[in-house]
Amino acid sequence: MPAEIEISCVINGELVKARVQPAERLVDLLRERLGLKGTKTGCEEGDCGACTVLVDGVAVNSCLFPAVEAAGRAVTTIEGLQGTNGELHPAVKAFVELGAVQCGFCTPGMILRAWAFVGENPNPTEDQIRRSVEGNICRCTGYVKIIDAVRRLVDEGVER
Length: 160
What we know:
Blueprint: E1 5-11, E2 14-20, H1 26-33, E3 52-55, E4 58-61, E5 74-76, H2 90-97, H3 107-120, H4 126-131, H5 144-155
Parallel strand pairs: 1-5
Antiparallel strand pairs: 1-2, 3-4, 3-5
C-alpha cells in the first residue's frame, strides 16, 4: 500500500488536515472521512455531476478529483453554502422557491454548478444558461425549473 500523504486545505471555510492515499478521491474524503454527505456519488465516472463541488470556486467532479490535489485549496460543498443571518443561500433559495428540487439526489451538485456558472458568467445568454447544466443529470424535473433557478440568480445579479 502506498504511503499516505498529509494534506491541509480549507473545506467550507475551515482548515482541515488529513492523511490521504495517493489515489484517494476527493468525494471519498468528503463523504466517508469527513461526513459531508451532501456530496453524492452517482456514476463515479464524471458523467452525472452528482459529486460536483467547488475547488477554488470552480465546479469539479469530485469523483475524478484526487484528494491530494485539494492540498492548499478551498473546497466548498453544499454544506458550505450559507446564507446570511440564518437565511437560505441565494442559490439554494432559488432552487427551492422555483421547484427545481424533486428527489434531491442531483440537487447539491446542480446548485454548486449553478453557483459557479453565475460567478463566471454575470451576463449569460439563454443558450449559455441552458448549457450550464449539461454536466449534471437530473432524472426528475426535465430541467425547466432548474434553468429557471439559474436564470433567477443571473437576473437578481447575485454576486459570489
